[in-house]
Design brief:
About 30% of the residues lie in helices and about 20% in strands. The strands form three sheets. The chain has a seven-stranded mixed sheet with strand order 2-1-3-4-11-10-9, covered by helices on one side. The protein is globular. Bound molecules: zinc ion (ZN). Zinc ion binds next to loops.
């Protein structure tokens, strides 16, 4: 007959196993959490333009309610902390691009390449989609299926009418919409669009071609494409042969555009998709007020727009337009 000591042991073991079983879901959940790393570039342009920090912090707030997703924002350029990409499921650049792109300095392309080979997702927003052809072009093509190639792609401001929204996890809950932005188009995509799925496409009006030829303004190939009425893809998804995912979004010159629920939803859904997190059935819902849009703006020469009506802000934004290619 077992003694009291035996019963004490049994009771103790039961308590331990209960504790383990209770903790198990938490452990599994932690292991399944997707980590999205956003690199928000240094300030540039006028108020309410290229608001990398404010935009990235807005995405972070909007995704806070999505279960099992963690969003890290590194503000003002490349992270200075140790092991910034540890455990990252995706890395997204909302930064100044071209020769100043954060991804191409020092040996960062090699650092990123090692992560991409492991299947980490890759995304870029607005100017972040542009890198020099000879420095980063091949990598961006491999990692996100397309990029802004100078003398091939263009950067006019225009009203893009997205009349047909394709079916894709990134477009969940997105309705047709029209919005003015500096929508870059005629990206350099993978040959034959292999692995690339257009997400937002619109016909570019003839007015987009009124500038002369140049690195960002026009070239014979894009003129032919616009004249033919070809749909121009300004946001796209990419699946790499190794299973890694990419996403490019060329709008977001205008910070106030984050106030448009469809515009915002495309990017929020995409951040989840490239991280292999489940996109909710109706897409990511997030309420954004005019006041929210004025949070975290970069200090820009002491200019700070006051909160008024959204239409007043839009007028102010147009008046303060500064060419994105200025000073390059
Ligand atoms: Zn811009």
């Amino acid at each position: 007959m077992p003694g009291p000591f035996y019963y004490r042991i049994v009771k103790y073991l039961r308590r331990i196993s209960t504790a383990i079983l209770c903790a198990l879901p938490l452990v599994l959940q932690a292991a399944d959490t997707k980590k999205i790393v956003l690199i928000a570039g240094k300030p540039s342009h006028g108020p309410l333009q290229h608001e990398h920090n404010a935009g990235s912090l807005l995405f972070q707030r909007c995704l806070a309610s999505v279960p099992n997703v963690e969003v890290i924002v590194y503000q003002n350029g490349w992270p200075t902390v140790a092991n910034p990409f540890e455990g990252a499921d995706s890395i997204v650049f909302f930064v100044t691009g071209g020769k100043a792109h954060e991804a191409i300095k020092e040996n960062r392309l090699s650092e990123l390449r090692a992560l991409m080979e492991k299947g980490v997702g890759f995304g870029a927003i607005h100017y972040g989609v542009e890198v020099p052809k000879e420095n980063g072009g091949a990598e961006f093509l491999d990692w996100m299926g397309g990029y802004f190639e100078t003398h091939w792609s263009v950067n006019p401001h225009w009203d893009a009418e997205f009349k047909l929204i394709p079916e894709h996890p990134i477009t969940r809950g997105v309705k047709p919409f029209t919005i003015n932005d500096e929508w870059y188009f005629h990206m350099r995509f993978q040959p034959g669009m292999k692995g690339v799925t257009p997400i937002l496409s619109a016909r570019a009006p003839a007015s987009t071609m009124k500038r002369g030829d140049g690195a960002h303004s026009g070239n014979p190939a894009v003129r032919e494409s616009v004249a033919a009425g070809a749909p121009q893809h300004v946001a796209w998804a990419y699946e790499r042969p190794n299973g890694g995912r990419g996403f490019g979004f060329t709008g977001a010159h205008n910070h106030l555009n984050w106030g448009n629920p469809n515009f915002r939803k495309v990017v929020l859904n995409a951040l989840l998709w490239i991280s292999k997190a489940e996109v909710p059935q109706g897409g990511v819902d997030c309420d954004v007020t005019d006041e929210d849009l004025m949070l975290n703006l970069d200090p820009k020469k002491g200019q700070r727009p006051r909160v008024r009506s959204r239409s007043d802000l839009r007028k102010q934004q147009q008046q303060q337009f500064i060419s994105p290619t200025l000073g390059k």
